[in-house]
Amino acid sequence: MLELVKRALRVTASVFDTELAALIEAALDDLEIAGVAARDNEDRPLIRRAVTTYCKANFGEPDDYDRLKASYDEQKSQLMTAVGYAERAGLDEEVC
């Protein structure tokens, strides 16, 4: 995923690899906190798009931060309700 994000950000130098890897992990964590099974679906296009948008919004100081943040939030919201992406809380618990 690092190479995908680097291409999207038009970064060619490896000097930013550590920072970008941390942003990727933060994006995946944020999606997981919201109930999206992001790590189980890392290779799926919608997860990769959301992670890329998160990284674009949070790398450096983008002029269009508000637009990118709103776009990421919308993508996350859609993933939270999408079949195959949303984690189903309580499915493993016994029903009394």
Question: Keywords, please?
Answer:
96 residues; mainly alpha; 4 helices; 0% strand; disordered C terminus
Describe the model.
By secondary structure, the chain is mostly helical. Helix content is 57%, strand content 0%. It contains four helices and no strands. It has helices at residues 2-8, 17-33, 45-58, 65-81. α2 packs across α3 and α3 (45-58) runs antiparallel to α4. The radius of gyration is 15 Å and the shape is globular. The N and C termini lie far apart (42 Å).
The total of beta strands comes to 0
Mean pLDDT value: 91
Category by helix and strand content: mainly alpha
Supply Rg.
Answer: 15 Å
Number of helices: 4
Strand content: under 5%
Largest beta-sheet characterization? none
Estimate the global geometry from the Cα principal axes. Answer: globular
Short structural summary:
This protein is 57% helix and 0% strand. The chain is mainly α and 96 residues long.
